[in-house]
Amino acid sequence: MSEGRTTNPTELSNAQLLEAFEMMSLIRRVEEIAGRAYQMQKFSGFCHLYIGQEAVAAGSSLAMEPGDYMISAYREHGQAMSRGISAHAVMAELLGKRTGATGGRGGSMHIFDAEKRFMGGWGIVGGQIPLGAGIGFAIKYRQEKDVCLCYFGDGSIHQGVFHEALNMASIWDLPVVFICENNKYAMGTDMDRINAQKDLTKKAVSYAMDAATVNGQDFFDMYTGVKGAIDRARDQSRPTFLDVRTYRFRGHSMSDPGNYRTKEEVEEEKGRDPILKMRRDLIAMGVATDEELTAIDKKCRKEAKDALAQAEKDPFPDISTLKDFVYV
Ligand SMILES: Cc1ncc(C[n+]2csc(CCOP(=O)(O)OP(=O)(O)O)c2C)c(N)n1
Ligand SMILES: [Mg+2]
After folding, report:
1. Distance from the CA of 256 to the CA of which of 134, 171, 266, 272 falls in 20 to 30 A?
2. What is the pLDDT of residues 73-128, one digit of tens each?
3. With a 6 A CB cut-off, is 258 part of the ligand 1 pocket?
């Protein structure tokens, strides 16, 4: 295992770095508990875990201002928590409880919190990309200074809306950061098999948009990449495309045994575990000791466990509200 960084390449304080470590640890522990709860049939439907991709959410979130927006796909539990939605509100949402972030009506793929400017949680591959551009349009139209971070998987870049949204964001100078969470697979389909152009940043070039490749398994690289893009959006009202290289350690969803990749590949990727990397960095930089980081992780394990226990006790939405929010 490589040694950690000895200097902090960002302007983040030690307290903020520890906040990022805690955020990543909490996401990991909540996802582990969610996976176990699913296997125990405490809830059903779809469930896509974020394990392995935690630094993408944490690196982004630390670079954001409270007024900035985030919108994502269905692998969004971790991103929701990175914007301050509690572990309990996420867990309760998975279980369909009234106390869930979306009142128990959305479930795993549809976590929302408009107050925290977390705009979901979308199940149609690529469907949120034009919505993210639309949020950028609204920000600009109202002459506000916020930025929208719009996430999508590598599988969605072949959808027409990806190309339409990027083109519009560029011609209209929208303050949007388009973040492709490139975890190498769209369900079981290997990116290398379906991409004629393997350098995804070249797709943005055709829309005259700045683009960069970012190591999503390194919190510091992620933070720096996103911060630069956010600054460009806020100061110049220009969009950016980021090809973030990451990896999911679990299957696509809970029903995926992952037979399309070798054990060796997964093990090799686990050697780049973003949380272990952050741990090594923080120790090498003298920000915290191994024991202090273990204590933070222990706190996160408890918070995740308590979140599930509370969610299990919480009530389901009242039957009288069955038709609420239904248009027809
Ligand atoms: C329009 C559309 N087509 C197909 C699906 C089924 N589907 C759900 S997830 C997925 C793969 C998407 O992979 P990617 O965008 O790489 O995201 P990841 O799951 O890797 O995070 C597909 C094909 C869908 N939800 N929407
Ligand atoms: Mg993918």
Report:
1. 272
2. 999 999 999 999 999 999 999 999 999 999 999 999 999 999 999 999 999 999 99
3. no
Q: Is the CB of 124 under 6 A from ligand 1?
A: yes
Is the Cβ–Cβ distance between 219 and 58 less than 8 Å? yes
DSSP 108: T
- CA-derived radius of gyration, the chain: 19
CB 241 within 8 A of CB 167: no
What architecture is the 14-314 domain classified under in CATH? 3-Layer(aba) Sandwich (3.40)
First-to-last C-alpha distance (Å) of the chain: 58
Amino acid present at 30: V
Q: Give the count of alpha carbons within 13 A of 86, CB side only.
A: 12
Positive or negative torsion for Cα 65, 66, 69, 71: positive
Q: How far apart are CA 192 and CA 184, in angstroms?
A: 8
Q: Give residue 246 CA to ligand 2 midpoint distance, Å.
A: 9
How many whole angstroms from 153 Cα to the centroid of ligand 1? 7
The full length of the chain comes to 328
Q: State the CB neighbour count (10 A cutoff) for residue 287.
A: 18
Which residues, at least 6 apart from 115, have a Cβ–Cβ distance to it below 8 Å?
none
Closest residue by Cα to atom 25, ligand 1, is 124
Among candidates 102, 85, 181, 177, which has minimal Cα distance to 139? 177
Q: Which atom, in ligand 1's list, is nearest to the CA of 53?
A: 21
